[in-house]
Write a structure and sequence with these properties.
The structure holds two protein chains of two kinds. Chain A is of the alpha+beta class. Chain A has helices at 2-5, 23-27, 53-57, 72-81; strands at 12-13, 33-36, 39-42, 63-64. Chain A has four helices and four strands. In chain A, the strands form two sheets. Chain A has a two-stranded antiparallel ribbon. In chain B, strand 1, helix 1 (17-27) and strand 2 form a beta-alpha-beta unit. The radius of gyration of chain B is 26 Å and the shape is elongated. In chain B, the strands form two sheets. In chain B, strands 1-2-4-3 form a four-stranded mixed sheet, sandwiched between helices. In chain B, helix 8 runs antiparallel to helix 10 (259-283) and helix 10 (259-283) packs antiparallel against helix 11 (293-327). Chain B has helices spanning 17-27, 60-69, 87-93, 98-107, 110-113, 131-138, 152-158, 172-223, 232-252, 259-283, 293-327; strands spanning 9-11, 40-44, 53-57, 75-80, 118-121, 141-144. Classes of the chains: A alpha+beta, B alpha/beta. The A-B interface holds A 1, 3-10, 23, 25-31, 47-53, 56-57, 59, 66-76, 87-89 and B 83, 85, 89, 91-93, 123-124, 126-132, 144, 147, 161, 163, 166-168, 170, 224-225, 230, 232, 282-283, 285-300.
């Protein structure tokens, strides 16, 4: 799976803002964050799929990511219909 | 104490024949927006005010996964209105979100039903639910449970999720279960393409179009992790090319046609149809569990022009030999 999950992404993390709440390590579906002592560290940056769960649940705004769906069909649909934010369904 | 709380609907952990049939129809995309359960509060077993509350989406596949995983557990299931969309996709859209959760807690008067203030959410709901805001607005503490409902019993027993429970996968079985919806959603396009193909080159081209369809909807998803190269589009070109090769060879051996005619047909097939398979593969990014918006956008800008040129040239070649065939120039 490593070969497949290697993707570029826009994840940015400011470790000095971390409060040690651990939520990012719990919500990330690809194990991007792990606790090292009292702070979260980015341990699998390339696996980030930009779902935005960590950013949404970070209490100190230490995480920024241009989140959205990694779905070509949604983006093509949005481009054809002129909608801004591509979503599913 | 109770000021007429909202109705709590009893449910159970069995899969009835009707449930199974509903799940099969959902997998085949039959009336895909109709596979819903009524949002609200459900009681599984004989829950008490101390019993845990699990939150899920009002999609039958989601609700069924949760209630069957909780067999033998006395608990409440709070079903959010996600318009018959699964938890992760609904969270991405925001319908499985903070606002809906806070409103559903109030609407069901959950605070009067249970004495504690804890909710267990599926981990993938975190894309739409801000645990801190839910706490601030409703008083309920959100705990993100495992990704998969079937891990809930082990999660409850251990009191926490293991790292393994926190990771999404994309197994062979996951991909196998998605094949019906891929087949169904593209069927009419390919039916139309098959009709055009018959006029252009007879049954050989019809079969080639069918091969491109199955290469994109069946072969590509199943072989995904084992196809060399990284992005979905190039994987699609590889699978499409290999699946179309036998038809190009058959085109070269087509009787009663000149060598030039045969080569143009073979080249046309090899240009147009692997590009179609690659396009299906590119669109499969949204069905997968690991592609990022940035990565997909980059892949689209890199490969869609290539697909368009290959497809355009290939169609021109096939239609040209088709027209020549009908007017008697072979």
């Amino acid at each position: 799976m490593n070969e497949l999950t290697r993707e570029i992404n826009t994840l940015q993390y400011l470790e000095e803002k971390c409060t040690g709440c651990k939520l990012c390590t719990m919500v990330c579906p690809h194990g991007v964050f792990a606790m090292e002592g009292d702070v979260a560290r980015v341990v699998r940056r390339d696996a980030c799929m930009e779902c935005g769960a960590c950013m949404l649940n970070c209490p100190s705004e230490a995480i920024a990511v241009d989140s959205g769906v990694g779905c070509a069909a949604a983006m093509i649909y949005a481009a054809l219909t002129g909608r801004e934010e591509p979503t599913c369904g | 104490m109770f000021s007429e709380p909202k109705e709590i609907t009893p449910t159970h952990s069995r899969m009835t024949a009707a449930n199974r049939w509903d799940n099969i129809l959902a997998r085949w995309g039959w009336r895909r927006d109709r596979h819903w359960v009524v949002p609200g509060l459900y009681a599984l077993g004989n829950p008490t005010p101390e019993s845990p509350v699990f939150v899920t989406a009002n999609y039958t596949l989601s609700f069924d996964a949760v209630r069957t995983a909780l067999a033998g557990v006395d608990c409440y299931i709070l079903v959010l209105l996600t318009y018959a969309i699964n938890v992760w996709c609904a969270a991405g859209k925001g319908t499985f979100g903070t606002d809906e959760l806070v409103e559903r807690i109030a609407e069901t008067r959950l605070g009067e039903v249970v004495s504690h203030r804890r909710l267990i959410l599926p981990q993938l709901g975190a894309t739409g639910v801000n645990a801190w805001e839910v706490k601030r607005r409703s008083g309920f503490t959100v705990t993100f449970g495992p990704v998969r409902a079937k891990d809930i019993p082990a999660y409850m027993a251990a009191g926490k999720a293991t790292p393994e429970m926190r990771l999404v996968r994309f197994t062979f079985t996951d991909r196998l279960l998605q094949i019906p919806i891929e087949l169904v959603s593209l069927f009419l396009w390919f039916l139309g393409a098959g009709v055009v193909a018959w006029f252009a080159g007879g049954w050989l081209t019809v079969a080639a179009v069918g091969a491109a369809y199955l290469a994109g909807t069946v072969v590509f998803p199943l072989l995904l992790p084992w196809i060399p190269t990284r992005d979905f589009s190039s994987k699609g070109f590889i699978v499409g090319g290999l699946c179309l090769l036998p038809f190009a060879v058959l085109a070269l051996g087509k009787p009663e046609a000149t060598l030039v005619w045969r080569w143009v047909l073979a080249a046309g097939l090899m240009l147009a149809l692997p590009a179609v398979t690659a396009f299906i593969a590119l669109n499969y990014t949204g069905a997968s569990t690991f592609t990022s918006k940035t990565g997909v956008r980059r892949e689209m800008s890199r490969y869609i022009p290539i697909m368009a040129v290959c497809f355009g040239l290939g169609v021109i070649a096939v239609l040209t030999v088709g027209i020549l065939w009908w007017v008697g120039i072979r």
